[in-house]
Amino acid sequence: MVIMILKILVPFLIIFQVIPLLIWVERKGSAFIQDRHGPNRAAIMGLRLGGLLHSLADVIKLMSKEDIIPHNVNKPFFIMAPWITLSIACVTFAVIPFAQPLTINGELFSIQAANINVGILYILAMASLGVFGIMLAGWSSNNKYALLGGVRSSAQMLSYEISMGLALMSVLLVSGSLELNDIASLQTAMPWNWNVVKQPLAFLLFTAAAFAETNRNPFDLPEGESEIVAGYHTEYSSMKFAMFFMAEYAHIIIASALISVLFFGGWQVPFLSTDILRSHADIGLFFVILAHGVGLLVLGMFLLSKYQKNKYGDKRDYEVLVLGVPFIVIGIVLCGIAFGFGAQPLGDLGQQIFAAFIQFGVFLGKILFFCWFFIWVRWTLPRFRYDQLMHLGWKVMLPLSLINITVTAIVILMVS
Amino acid sequence: MLLVILLNNPVASALSLVMALFSLSGLYILLEAPFVAVLQVLVYAGAVMVLFVFVIMLLKLRPEDLQQDRVTIGKAGVVLLGVPFVGFLIHKFLSVPVESSFKPVAANFGSPKEVGTLMFTKYLIPFEVVSILLLVAIIGVIVLAYRSPTDRD
């Protein structure tokens, strides 16, 4: 029972912790791409922490703003629309596997919230339901621009869902199972077995369709900031707008997780299969603790070397100390633990838990890499015009995905 | 499901239909058919109903075109007639011993493999006929709604 609650809570909490991180990465990353500094002013007691506190400031601002509901809107739908969008975005994360299933007392214990045997279809179904939230938001706002944004967005999402489903189908042909866990295990740890090598066209199609599904640049005409005055969430203020905002980043996280599970091996550590991880768990644990300790020590010493008294003349001098000193202390403690205990042999359960943690970490790393990719593309490419978007979806990507499935099926038939 | 016909606002009725389809999919899950359940949400609630709501939204319905709200009388009537009926059904259900009525289903009942095998062996001809039916529907829509470029403005 407790395990069930934990399995439900952990993906949910992951989304809600990565969203502020993504907001910070988006702002600082876009600033880096555009050759400027990015936000660096929000501070707690003089500590700026490089702009990380802006997410906290955003949350406080959005929660304390006045919640405006315009006069002629359809109130139930107006209030319901952001809830639908955000809850569907969070629910989709339930079937994503985070590590190879553990075998406890002969029973498989899978590291995902729900182990249904139609995993991918569930995600597609939730993506289809996500269209409702945006459509309702656009229509119930009693505003021309919102309606236009909502209609465009739903048409775009519907068109690209088809290409996404067909690109998925070619991955299914290769993997032979609908469960995401099986798809991730069948791509063994060697990077040349990953689906991105076996199905490169499907990877490109799926990524482009994922960009269109999440209404993200270059497909973000529905919420185009310079085109139709923020599109379908024009009339939303404070918490409801915050929910749309969070839902967009949650969709980005889900799309990144899907791309990495389907095409890049999900939780597979490159070159280290699960058996290797489990059998060398004792040395592995020693190395991981040692590496963390040494890494934190080096980082702490680097930060301390930047400490110059009277550089700014106010509390900003002490920022490097606030991070540097704890890093050095924790680094010394970790190195002490590593050398003090040495490489202890772990039991069977311990080995499996260690392997699961390493795979979990690698998976999170892959998700963060693809989130960065989403943000990178957003600030690099210009926006598609609406007719170009529709042309691309129906006349280019749909035939390409169909050809991909046909060729894949022929190749599989010839090989087997 | 009752709300579909009782509510005045057509978008609200469409959304009630979505909720009904969702509940139907939940029933499918309880009946050990997760594949059909997810397909129901994907195709029916996610694509067909989206198009319904799309079209309803694009119609410019003025509030005075909708009828007066007579839902209260209708709802009262349904409740008055429905409560004894539901009570009768509950009595019938409770008087049947539950354990002896159900046989456990096979382990891969309703799995994609089973459905796919059935669709391509036993039900192949209905499958192909349904796809031709859909093609006819698409062609019919295009024929009905097509305006050649010279007819514009």
Description:
The complex is a heterodimer of chains A (416) and B (153). Chain A is mainly α. Chain A folds into two domains: 68-268 and 351-415, no CATH class; 279-346. Chain A is 68% helix and 1% strand. Chain A contains 14 helices and two strands, in the order αααββααααααααααα. In chain A, strands 1-2 form a two-stranded antiparallel sheet. In chain A, a hairpin with a 2-residue loop joins strand 1 and strand 2 (107-109). The mean pLDDT of chain A is 80. In chain B, 14% of the residues are buried. In chain B, 70% of the residues lie in helices and 0% in strands. Chain B has one domain: NADH-ubiquinone/plastoquinone oxidoreductase chain 6, subunit NuoJ (Four Helix Bundle (Hemerythrin (Met), subunit A), Up-down Bundle), CATH 1.20.120. By secondary structure, chain B is mainly α. The model of chain B has no long low-confidence stretch (mean pLDDT 75). In chain B, helix 2 (10-30) packs antiparallel against helix 3.
Q: What are the defining features of this structure?
A:
heterodimer; A: 416 residues; mainly alpha; 2 domains; two-stranded antiparallel ribbon; 2 strands; 68% helix; globular; B: Four Helix Bundle (Hemerythrin (Met), subunit A); 70% helix
| Shape assignment of chain B | flat
Class by SSE composition of chain A: mainly alpha
Instruction: Please state the second-level CATH architecture of chain B.
Output: Up-down Bundle
Regarding quaternary structure, how should these chains be classified? heterodimer
What is the CA-CA span between the terminal residues of chain B? 43 Å
Helical content band of chain A: 55-70%
CATH class of chain B: Mainly Alpha
What is the fourth-level CATH superfamily of chain B?
NADH-ubiquinone/plastoquinone oxidoreductase chain 6, subunit NuoJ
The chain pair forming the largest interface, with residue counts per chain, is:
A-B, 27 and 23 residues
According to CATH, what is the topology of chain B?
Answer: Four Helix Bundle (Hemerythrin (Met), subunit A)
Total strands of chain B: the figure is 0
Low-confidence stretches of chain B: none
| Total beta strand runs of chain A | 2
Strand content of chain B: under 5%
Rg of chain A (C-alpha, Å): 24 Å
**Helicity of chain B, as a percent range:** 55-70%
Q: Any low-confidence stretches of chain A, pLDDT <50, length ≥5?
A: none
